[in-house]
What does this fold into?
Amino acid sequence: MGEKKKKIVKTIKVDADKCNGCRACETICSAFHALPRYSSNNPARSRIRVIREPLKDIYVPVYAGEYAKAECMGRDKYVIDGKEYDECAFCRASCSSRDLFIEPDSGLPLKCDMCESDPALEKPLCVQWCLVDALTYEEREEEVEEDAKLDDVETGLESLVNKYGRHKVMDAIARMSKKD
Amino acid sequence: MRYAETGFNLEIDLSRGGIERVQTDPRDTELYLGGLGTNAKILWDRVAPETEPFSPDNLLILSAGLLCGTPAVGCNRTIVSTISPQTLLMAFSMMGGFWAPELKYAGYDKVILRGKSPDLVYLWIHNDKVEIRDASHLRGKGAVETAELIRQELKEPKAQVAAIGVAGENRVYFASIEQGRSSASRGGIGAVMGDKGVKAIAVRGTKDIHIARPIEYMELCNEVLKYIKWRNENPIQGVMPILAGLGSPQEMAVNDEKWHTENFMWGNSRIRRKDFWNEEIEKKWTETMAHARQRLISCYNCPMKCGATLSLPGLPTYMMKCFSKLTYTMAAWSDLDFGLRIAQRATEYGVDAYSTPQVMAFALELYEAGILTEQDMAGLPSGNEERFYWLLDRIVRREGIGDVLADGTYWAAQQIGKGAEAYAHNNIKKHEQLPLKLSMLNPIYFLMYATGEKINITQIEGQFPQTPFPTRAEREAFVKDWFQVPEEKFKHYFLDWELRGEKSIPYYPTVDMCCEIVDWQERMHYIDDALGMCSGLSSFPLKPPYHIHNYPKFISAGAGIDMDEAKLTQAAKRYRTLVRAFNIRRGMRRKDEKPPENHWKKRFPELEKELLDTYYKFKGWNQDGIPTRESLQELDLGYVGEDFLKRGILTDRVDEPSKEISTGK
It folds into this structure.
């Protein structure tokens, strides 16, 4: 059995029912990520945006996720509790299909980093500024079995052995160990 | 580099179709801050006293406050200034929502409209791209509807739209500008927008707002946020629930309406129904609200949920806040369901929810009294509620009697004659007031009603408890953490204030104390109006997060203008005096400064005279309410003094009376 490792999983729980649509999260996010820190603010640079359609009672805070090189070929439309959400409403991608999570000057993609900083913040600022508790922060520890990862390594090595033979691979590992 | 503000105004000449981006003078920001302050300066400089509200020379200024768009919590107000068709004085109605921060992000502090467009248009401001666009297809559309149509047409769901409804198009004197959950309703500014041929102003901005000293500023913001959280968990003891917390009165959340329904007047501000509220009504109204209310909502960057999205079966969804909830209900002697339903139509029409119900109740009183005849009211339905819908439709379209009523109770009464004036009984400076009639004169409120140039009591009152607490122990508990007071003496004024006996109203607080209290209350509102701060987090509630001690730091760290309490107090006094000077130049005098005659049953003419005499002196105004040359000089308003001298409003000789100036309609 492999070694068990502890890992911290950071989660922001979004309770859209509690969102009051004020966009404080956007304000503070853009201020935090300004250079120098807090020197300016501009929701267009925010890594969280509230998808708001007040007359349809739609409020969805969405965090910037991965950069998508291209638009999706097909789109989804959700209807929940009789409310029809716009296509892409729940998507976190920084994508050319829309103006969310794209730096307005450079056009570079933006991604939520949980307000990474040194020293670390107690909670991401969007959560701290959300007094209505639509955004709450949870940290949980997970134990991860290293075994699973060894399996992955074996698969890789096996293909090398198949290509170069066991000896060459062992020589290479021995040489790498000396360098360390 | 300009901090907190953008340093640019957008000048729109509607007659010529001209658009200009004009850099502003940072020295004006130092002297007048921004928002209302710099609006007042522009109006003084550019709008001559002879200018009529519906003249192309009248300006309509929509301004963001100095700190709007920065992370300062709750700083999102648009201050709209122009000449009011109703009062003929400066109107400075305001709205929260999302428009002002968006304007800042687009790169402008103000939009200044002049001239008149020959055709109905709307403005589209998208960062550096500004267009005047045709709005003929939007004529007659509702204000909320218009905003949606424009967002769709521009394919800009994130654009913020301020729009007028039919009432504004038809220059109804109490027409509003609507914007999402907010509206600038008082003073008939929607009529001026309609007169200029502007249906809406849509804004979208993606630029930065800069902060002078970022770390310091964020610490201030975080302190405010922490205090709001604490205040929300610790409501004030010993006051009615709607005054215990922060924000504007939480009408959308609260179901217990005993206080409003039994203390405010019904009909045309006539009858107090002391035994109105009971369990059955509470149950029914609570159900009405629960069914209608979809969500409690906020303005930009504010945790207070003062507004709500309302959706009633069979009607389009709309948004509401505060006392609009009950004004239609109470004017019509009806129930909450009716009030919320007619308010939906009124919001689309774009009318003020204080004046409109009163105007309609006034019309029905005149009809019952035989002053308005069958002929005047031809077509009037027989059902009570139907009558209100009927009147509302005619007023906003200026059809028949609606054309007369659309000028508000004061001007309508003048036109109708036959003793109608006595029915327009709830006005100050020609403008309808909240429906309140009380028993004993309150000297603090007397001064606020008489001299408040915003002409709306909720926009001058605040911070100081409305009534004394019964026991000294309760008062001591209250002042213990009352750090917002400008000076310690205010705590003593409150500690000694009793419900009965020697130290009770009307003779306590003393005249001098009243002057100081009212001056503090008004000062905080004026500071809010320049910074764009919502009074719900500042000047209105008890023990607010923003106050005279932290505001100078916000301005210093945010805008990079060196500020302390004395300098801020002086700045607020400067533009407050400039607002007065503008109105004085248009003919306002002491004779105009009085609450409705029947506001209190027990009046004290001598005390009232002394109050006004002393307050005028305290403010640096002469006995006619005109700022003196010395006080103008002291406030760097020497140019106002010169103008007053030239026009004969002030003379070189102290004992010579000033010349009467009257502005016609």
